[in-house]
Amino acid sequence: MTEQTRAGASRRDLLTGVAVAAAGISAAATSSAPTQADAQAATSPRPGLGNNASGQVFFTTDTTAGKVMGIANGHIKEFKGVPYGAHTGGRNRFMPPKRPVAWAGVRDCIGYGQISPQTPADLASDYPMLIAWDRHVGPGGMGEDCLNLNVWTPGVNDGGKRAVMVSFHGGGWATGSGNGPMYDGAQLARFGDVVVVTVNHRLGAFGYADLAALGAPPEFKHSGVCGLMDMVASLEWVRDNIANFGGDPGRVFIFGQSGGGSKVSTLLATPPAKGLFHRAAVQSGSTLRQATREEASAESAKLVSALGIGKSNIADTQKVAWTDLLQAQIASGGNFRPVIGTEVLPHHPFDPTGPHESADVPVIISTTLHDAALRLSNFDLDEAGLRAIFTQRWGARGDAILAAYRGESPTESPFRIQAKAFTDATRGNAMVQAQRKAELGGAPAYLYTWDWATPAYDSKFGAVHGHDVDASFHLYRSPICGAGVAGGRLMCDRMAGTFVAFAKTGDPNHEGIPHWPAYEPGSRATMIFDSQMGVVPDYRGDFVRLIGETGPAKA
Hints:
There is one protein chain. By secondary structure, the protein is α/β, with parallel strands linked by helices. It is built from 15 helices and 13 strands. Strands 1, 2, 3, 4, 5, 6, 7, 8, 9, 10, 11, 12 and 13 form a 13-stranded mixed beta sheet that branches. Strand 8, helix 7 and strand 9 form a beta-alpha-beta unit.
């Protein structure tokens, strides 16, 4: 065998699992304890495809619409693009979701399904590149046959009764998908012995154009919430089918970050979703209010105008190509989100109080230290420029506010000081949400802040928006978590361990973190996720009140 042939064989062995090195990540290389399946895999014959000790590659199970086939990846079985609803185009556009059309035989669910129409990320911006946001558009394609979900599970048809972790993706209410790299559920399912589900649903105008407010026929009543109804339908699918995928429909945890956090906030106030989930987490997406009928009407009027459709022919919006509808959404600059005022969403999620619909659901609520850095690009900001920005935003109080931040962080870069202050200006939404949840007197709320700065991009972003998403999915290999560095792996263990514990028990405490008490209006306990973990009362409350833009009053 030549050197070139040997090198090629070595690469093939590594990729197919024949080599001993591919048997699993050793305990010495990670703080994660190896699972029983990993230990078995290390001593079992190595099949070529799937790295699966049993030798079985394909797995089939039943759903209420027909049989589906997934593929093994190690001991995790992956089912992608599983339909939970029918095609949403044509006469189904702007309508409540319908059940998927049943199929005969076995449906191939090895690859991703379509995602809702949307625009790709800007390739010239560092932040979307950091989180691979451009990768949503591609695998699975795009269109209106987008009511599908993805499942990662350690067991199929095994009666496993595992906790189920359902992720609603970020991207506001207009972009993103459950197919994105940061929502790959394989490592989380492997780490926690849980079933992970990610969901695709209608976005933007496709899910939230309130045409009823413009005089559309009565059947358009739910056009302003049909995307929210998609999410409810996905949870109904979980209730009816997840047992065949080794999951427990009585232990369903929903979680989401940014737009996903807004979705979870809203589902907590959605009466049709009551009883379909049993714990929830809102990461950097605390939403107190949604769109009123008046606000939504203005956005929808701009959309219809951009389409060149008169108010007397609003039903014609179902006839245009989806590409034209997306183009009109962009041209109109519409901000489409769920509209209150129907039985689906009768009131604002957390205003003026927390939602009684979910009073019995424990909730984790969070922010990151430098959340606002996602929208900032002035990385070369100097101290004089920072002072000018503070003066511009806070006027005569700018110097005093800057002095307070510099007193806390004398050596931090001006860019990150700016991001921290801009974050504190909105961090109060999470504090208010936790306060109002606690005031319901039902299940507890737990508040955390993610402070561990990403080492990627020379650490310039700090603890940026979305950093804790990859950690909660135990994606220690991702760039934002350090691409496998020890510190990043430890933070992934801590964050994913917290979410797994919460999914299983409704309590986030586990042996990998200090004791975490529930949030109470008096103490406002906040867990700090950083190299040094700890609980701090009313963390960053003084800065939020100093800025004075949002947040509860001092206790």
